Every structure is written in C-alpha cells, then in structure tokens.
Amino acid sequence: MSLKKRSLQLFLTGVEEKWVSSKAEEFCQLYWHRLMRPAGLIAVANEVTSGAIVTLCSASPEIVLRPFAEKNLGSN
C-alpha cells in the first residue's frame, strides 16, 4: 500500500463520505477556472463528442475528482 493511500485512509477514518463530497464540490467550484486549461477542456469535449471514451488519471482520490469529471464530461 502506498504512503499516500495509507495517509488518506488515516486522515479520512471516521469522516463521513457526504462531508468529503461536499468539500470536493466546493473545491471544484473555487478552483475550476484556475486549474482547468481552456484548450484542454476543448480537446476533451471534442473527444467526447466524437464518441471517444475519456479517462482521467490523477493521484487524487476519485471522490475529489468526481466534481471535475462531472462538470467537464457530464457523466460518471
């Protein structure tokens, strides 16, 4: 098990998923424009429109990425 995974498990032990999801959504709203590059968003949108399967790869937990994926891809 990686150090990051162990650290997250320790940090999140006893924390409700609903709270983490809420904070992830807030983070997305606050930092979307700073973190997302317009050319990248256009490129991803074009791929989705063409029928491609788009996969996000990150060291962040899925629960943190979910709001970004839903906002950009409009799906799960």
UniProtKB/TrEMBL annotation:
It comes from the Bacteria. The keyword Hydrolase applies. Its EC number is 3.1.3.3. Keywords: Hydrolase, Plasmid. The keyword Hydrolase applies. GO terms for molecular function: hydrolase activity. This is Phosphoserine phosphatase. It comes from Klebsiella pneumoniae.
